[in-house]
Write a structure and sequence with these properties.
Blueprint (H helix, E strand, L loop, with lengths): L4 E12 L2 E12 L3 E5 L6 H8 L7 E6 L2 E2 L5 H7 E4 L11 H6 L3 H4 L7 H13 L15 H14 L4 E5 L7 H16 L3 E5 L3 H7 L2 E6 L2 E6 L1 H4 L2 H8 L5 E4 L2 E7 L6
Parallel strand pairs: 3-8, 3-9, 6-7, 7-8
Antiparallel strand pairs: 1-2, 1-4, 4-5, 9-10, 11-12
């Protein structure tokens, strides 16, 4: 049985204040799939995610969420179907970790609704799975960057939306926390979530993504598996210099991208 199409983008032109950044974007993300967006700085990865989430108006084209034009969704219905995390989301109020994660349940009971035992159980299970049990009574303002990023992902999981749109969720994190955050995302995808995630680290994309969209020249120049997209020719076209590509030493099905040696 084919997986459900969760996000479908057709013939999309996207940009800011009528300045076209991306043209003719076509993407279909299905349940149980992690699609990574990669490409040079300024290529339009963040613009694509913000447009897909309706944070930026599209210039042309269609965006469907679970088969329904996304513009027809009300705010609460959209929140039940879409979880979004952007770069550098600041902390405004001194919530505890548990209080902050429980906010992901607001689409299901409202901002001023009673937090039910059911919602508490969902939050407790997600905190346990994310390794956040020991943090639940700490203030989010006291967390490190890696800890806070895991809390953001946990709040998105608690939301129980079928689609994650994540913009650079592992930026500024050390290797340990990058892997912890990507493991959390991957586990949700393996349980049926669809995720579109922008990443700078090509090797992380190769390790975790089912498919990769390589964005450059104002469009998607390649879309497919890591092996199909991460070729020397395509990466040189996207990034403008020769990028060495080899095979991962522990998994021959995963390409490994190397930094060029200094001359």
């Amino acid at each position: 049985m084919n997986a459900e199409s969760i996000l479908k983008i057709e013939n999309l032109d996207a940009g800011i204040k009528k300045r076209v950044i991306l043209k003719n974007i076509n993407i279909d993300v299905r349940s149980g799939e992690l699609l990574a967006l990669v490409g040079p700085n300024g290529s339009g990865k963040t613009t694509l995610i913000k447009t897909a989430a309706s944070f930026l108006p599209r210039l042309k084209g269609n965006i469907f969420l679970r088969g329904k034009e996304i513009s027809s969704f009300g705010k609460n219905e959209k929140a039940k179907n879409l979880a979004v995390i952007f770069q550098a989301q600041g902390i405004v109020w001194p919530f505890t970790v548990k209080e902050f994660i429980l906010q992901g349940r607001f689409p299901h009971h409202g901002w001023f609704g009673i937090v039910t035992k059911h919602n508490e159980c969902i939050a407790e299970q997600v905190m346990h799975d994310a390794g956040l049990d020991l943090f639940k009574d700490r203030l989010v303002s006291e967390l490190s960057g890696g800890e806070y990023q895991r809390v953001l992902i946990a709040r998105a999981i608690v939301q129980q939306a079928p689609l994650f749109l994540l913009d650079e969720p592992v930026s500024y994190l050390d290797v340990k926390h990058q892997l912890a955050v990507m493991d959390l995302i991957r586990k949700s995808v393996d349980q049926g979530i669809a995720a579109m995630v922008s990443l700078h680290d090509l090797n992380l994309a190769a390790m975790y993504a089912d498919r990769i969209a390589l964005i450059a020249e104002g469009t998607i120049i390649a879309l497919g598996s890591a092996g199909e997209v991460f070729t020397k020719e395509l990466l040189e076209r996207a990034f403008g210099f020769s990028v060495p590509v080899g095979t991962h030493r522990w998994n021959e099905n995963i390409p490994e991208i190397f930094y060029p040696l200094r001359k």
